[in-house]
């Protein structure tokens, strides 16, 4: 349900991809704003959004981008169950990644897929990509 109490209908546009650990979902309502992408580097400040099961609202956590590869990055922000699929944004609110997974029962070093890899995945599935 959305914040206004209206139930969102979500449809799966692509099957989960084992290499990317991603799938594309489309909701029945338009997004309130477009996500603009940006490239980040290790040491950049990042903000993570997630929806923990014990919360009734979206939660935010601030951290720093740690080690990076072309496809993923470590974000040293608090993220636990329910944060997977949440956006990782920079100080300007630009998308730099999407939360993927973490280590341990409480995620100490969350892993995120880079916006570059996300854009490639969307392009491969004929879904409009991210703007820069």
TrEMBL record:
Under the heading InterPro entries, the entry gives: Peptidase_S1_PA, Peptidase_S1_PA_chymotrypsin
Pfam families named in the record? Trypsin_2
Q: What is this protein called?
A: Serine protease
